[in-house]
Amino acid sequence: MPNSPNAKKALRQSEKRRTLFRQQRAALRTVLKKARVAAEGDDQEAAEAAFRLAAKRLDQAAAKNLIHKNVASRTKSRLSAFKKKQAS
Predict the structure, then answer these.
(1) Number of domains, the chain
(2) Tens digits of per-residue pLDDT, 62-85?
(3) pTM score
């Protein structure tokens, strides 16, 4: 347990930050899953729309330092390759 007032405040801030990041990361995972499910389906327009939304959310997460920019780039690349593979 923190003893000093500074340590107590730091603990409060880190807990608040952790819950916020968990919510944002969970929402990002949901968007990615929807994009993968849409790519497996028959509707190519829906798959493209879901991919565009996922790419946008990945870029936003990278801009907010929720994930690293290289992770966002790699995920977009893999999702695009998966979408193309399912389309053929």
Answers:
(1) 1
(2) 999 999 999 999 999 999 999 999
(3) 0.85
